Amino acid sequence: MSSASRNSFLNRRLNSVQDGDKVARASSNARPFAVSHDDAYTYALRVAYLHYLLQPKTKRKQWVAAPKPPPRTHTSNIGDLVKEFVPGNSMSVKLPHGFRSPLEKRIERVIMGAERLPGYSDAAVKKTFAQAYTAFTEQGFRKSIDKERKVEPLVLIFYSAATKACGLGHERGDDHWKLLVDRHLALFVRLIANILRDQGHERDKPELMSRLTTLENKLLTNDQNLFIDTGQNAGNTIEVVVPLTYNIKDMPMVQAVARIFGLSHSDVQGHIDAQRQAWTEEAALKDLKAYQHRLNSNMSGALGSRDFDVDEVYQEWKKAEGPFLSQMVLEILTARPELARRSTTVHLSSDKPLPSNPLSSQTEDQAYADLGRALSKSDRSSMYGFDHALNLGSISLEDTGSIRAVDEANYTFIPPDPREFFKIITKYVLEFDAMHDDESKQSSLFSKHSTDLLTELCVRWRIPQFTRLVVFLEVAARRFTDTMLTVIDLDNAFDLVKIPSPEVKKPPHIYLHNESLATIDRSKWTISDYAVYQQTLYTLNDALLRDLYDTLMHCYEPKPPSVGPALHVLQNHIFNDPIFSRKEEDAREYSRILESGLQEQAALVYRGFLDAEVPRSQQDWNFSHVVELGKSVVKLCERIQKRYKKNPEILGVNPLTVLVGTMFPNFEDDAHDLIRRIVQVSEERGEELPLQDGFDLYKELVEIRRIHRSSLPSRPFTFDIEELLVDFVWRWIQNAEARAEEFVEEAIKQDQFQVRGHGPGHISLDSERHSHSIIDMFQLFNQTADQVFQLEWDNDVHHARFMTALSKIFANSIARYCEVVDQRFIKEMDTPRPNEKEAAAVAQTTQGRFMQYAKDAWNNKEKIEPFQFYPESLVKLNNVEWAMQELDKLEKSMNVDACADILEKADGPKRQVRRPAKYVFTIKIVEAEEIKACDPNGTSDPYVVLVDEYQKRLHKTRIVMRTLSPRWDESVDVTVSGPLNIVATIWDYDTFGDHDFVGRTSLKLDPIHFSDYLPREFWLDLDTQGRILLRVSMEGERDDIQFYFGKAFRHLKRTERDMVRKITDKLTRHINASLSYEALRILFGRNLASQVNSFFKRSSTLPQLTEPEIENALQSLFAYFNENFATMKETLTDATMVAVMTRLWKEVLMAIEALLVPPLSEKPSNQRPLNQRELDVVYKWLQLLFDFFNARDEDGEVLGVPAEVLRSPKYHELASLNFFYFDTTENLIRTSERMAAATAQRQQQQLQGQMAASPNRLSAPASLGPSLGPHHAGPAFASMGTIRRGKSIMMSRNLGTMRRAKEEKRKEAQADPSDDMILRILRMRPEAVGYLKERHRQKERMAAAAAAAMIVKQSVSQGWNSAGGGFGRGGVPRR
């Protein structure tokens, strides 16, 4: 829009006022009167001078003295003097209540020299006052003064004290000091008068004050007689009227006029002196009479019906003028009573009504004569000396009589056009007050003197209240349009005319004086006032809109002017006024102009930012320039948002929205180009941009995008910030990975693995029983994750991939930590203890070796010393347990499941068809059978070493002491990208010397053979003797956050399990010795004598073992447990201690199981079954051990392992074994067949259900998984038992999934009974050899059928499976 059209809009003119709405009062058709400066001055001076003439006359008191008595030298009788001057009988001369306390305080100030009045600092005066103060503070005197409140006692006591103080040191006959007594007493009287004056008692105690002053003067006057008669001969006080001086110094209002019009006092005094004969009270009275006549006659010279829109309003105003005119006449007659006495003498009492109309039989002169008589008889105590009961409304000013002819056209004090004169004078007053405004004292437009002058003008010129206020606003608006007033001043002007003035004691004689424009009905205004007010509003609207436009053009500057005042005036004083009407098209046009101007200003400001923040040379650009440019933009937006928070939209335009809409698109385009160019230049130079610069840039751009979205919701951001800067996050993650590897190694190196206690004797809490290395490592993990969280990356897919990459870093770090800590733990546990070192020295020879075996055999019969656990070893176990808890918290904070869901939705089918690049084989070394014996006692101490085809060690199991059928139950993860051969070697551990070779076997791990991802068990024959059982399962190595967390949890869980086993292995030897055939033999051998006696006596029953004897057989084991538990309890946490005890409980169950039945196999066993007595003892041992591990206190609280943990599936199997142990072979076979048939039927139903639910599923049920396909090696009789799906990594991704998997395993074991125990019992029955072989062949046929079904299924699916050979759709099973 052009500036010409804009000015045309902003300077819209109002329609002209209709004919007849004229301002001049002299004639409704006359043009406005041109008022000169001199004319305005002279009429303002006339009114100010008249105000001086009519003001109440000042009176003063005058003393008429009696003849002077003969002179005296000093006071001869103070009692008579006081009695005459201060008589105490009258209440008017009594002291006020509470006077004693301030008097004493003032005397104290005199004594201390702090009195401000002159004459009290003399030392003799202080001495006299001190003497009097002692007498005044006596308790009885205080009560007397408070009660009677008389002055005489005070004066007499002080006189006595002054006489004592001043008479000291003078000879008899020397009376010069007595004059000093009079002076001191006069000072005391003066002090009393001063106190009364300070307390404001000068008015209510005038007689007392007068007498005190007289007493003081007489005491100080040595030539007057103090014995003064208070009668008529002593003098009297009379009131006299102060005559007018006609001096300008006594005329405050005239002085105000002189200041306003810039004249000196001498000039104004000359004008007054020259016009004193014309500017009189009589002229004012004639003005009122003429005004009344013109008002009643509806003539020019007063407001008439032509000036009002409705005649009723005019009549109401005319009626209200009568009482005001009567009051004004009364004021004139009060000031000049002789004006009323010039008429004929007609008696008029004060209660006789005056004539009320010009047709009365009495003349006007008679009326004034009567009024004069009434005034002469009225009470002078009223303000103007007249009786307020007089009926002022009865005074009539209308007559053609003696004062002035009614046809005279001019007034003395009223100008020709009062409204115009008043407006001009108001303009001069406003200019003067603006130039001499004291902001600290005045906030109104007019000063107090100016307001009084303008009010007096309205009273004398009969200007109505609404006209007065409209003129005020008109003058203020004119000065505002001339830029002489601010918007705040204009707002004050509106408040002045809209807020009613406070009530005063004597309101001026103005119609509706206490009302305002907001309260006066607009219909009561004159036509001209209404038109002027309306025109003023439209003029102010245009001016304020221009002012608002100019102000908003600076709104983007650092310190712009405020738009609040202009908006406040527009919205509260103009738009809300009923007289003003705003057109919608004008409002829309103004909003468009304003928005266009703001857009130009925003563009200019942005260009300034660009020039200031971005260098001209592209080679010098870097991210900091973009960041600073963005900060400038954001800072400006935040400043604008804060500035216009309460009123974001100004007349339909939002400065913030305009700023964002103009500046942000430009910045976004420039920032995009700048960033791409900076990256390009960096790549050309072969340099890497600082990561922090990239992060700072991202935060700045995100803030800008937030403001963009909130202000421009329908307009998308120009570019994708996350895609542009994602490489910086990936670089940071790569650096974090390198830092993590170094950090873990250094943390372990610096850690002493000690309990973080507070010194000796302090019992450490569980939270203090892990060391700094694991704390530091997880602090690193949390800080690393928080760094990404703090970015608040606004791309869920990117964020999920970041979390996945971090989870991989965490998993690798945990794996490395577990590996190093486990190696150290094993080394510490295998380090020979002092007693073992001593034995090693003896065992260097063959003879010493056999002696050691003998010693060990002897020690088995005696007490076994507890194992010496190192605290640092146990702290490592605490670290692993604490790490699982922290990892679970980290998994929740990273919201792992949500990240996995996001990536699964984002990748869609592409992720499903992606074949894994790596696979994870989980190899579980379960047990071995009938291995070679390498020790002289006919057993071995076997352990397994697992290596790959490149002789890289993969795993080493723990050592199982003194057995040919060891069970390890240890797992290891092997990551492969193709087929890999592994070799399992069994060694015999020897404490001294080299370890002996037991046997070796191998197995090929090929991902193709495990395409169904189901576990398999392999019985592998050793190349010497015996066989070993391996359970193998495979999972695809996936770039999946759940997979990495599962991998980390598996590392921690296996490390914890291996450490716990290493600990329990140190105790297992004594467990196996205490729960063995040898222990049963010894227990029953102790009762051998009684058995022999029973045999010779041919007794029918053998003696039974007592409960204490059975329990005593385990006392050494219990003592051994307690001693070791006490050692471990000092370091291990409660949770870790329960884990160790739970593992020991499992070893106890395995020992009892080995005592009851042989391992599961298809071959018959040479193990002897127990008889009934032995079986009863074993089950009593089981119950005793259960109670020991449960460890309840006297109150029944469990201190050990919870009962639900002790009642494991193995415990229930042993408990059920008692039902079948002595059953016949035929019944056992029938029961086994029935259970096997039920199991097969249930598995078939499960397979059919899975096929129906997922026809494309390529995995077989877990129970049919073992031994599928041609790669089954060995006899494989273990498949006769139930084999379930092993624990996958995905099932171990947090503590919750691990607990659920464990609970499901327990439920499956209880819901799916197995005949394994029956088959193990049948191995001890020679007659069951055939059945065992038949069950073996049956299992092989079932496995072959399941494998054939799987091959057919895979063949059918190859028609649509593009992944090929046996991997299933997409190379991985569906999740």
Give a written overview of the molecule.
The protein is elongated, with a radius of gyration of 60 Å. A hairpin with a 4-residue loop joins strand 4 (942-948) and strand 5 (953-956). A four-stranded antiparallel beta sheet has the order 6-3-10-9, with helices on one face. The protein has a four-stranded antiparallel beta sheet with strand order 5-4-7-8, with no helix packed on it. It is built from 46 helices and ten strands. It is an alpha+beta fold. Residues 1-31, 223-233, 343-409, 857-862, 1094-1100, 1254-1286 and 1357-1375 have low confidence and may be disordered.
From the alpha carbons, calculate the radius of gyration and give it in angstroms. Answer: 60 Å
Poorly predicted regions are 1-31, 223-233, 343-409, 857-862, 1094-1100, 1254-1286, 1357-1375
Strand content: 5-15%
- How would you state the average pLDDT, rounded? 78
Class computed from helices, strands and strand pairing: alpha+beta
Distinct helical segment count: 46
**Distance between the first and last residues' Cα:** 65 Å
Q: Shape, please?
A: elongated
Can you list the strand order of the major beta sheet?
A: 6-3-10-9
Helix percentage range: 55-70%
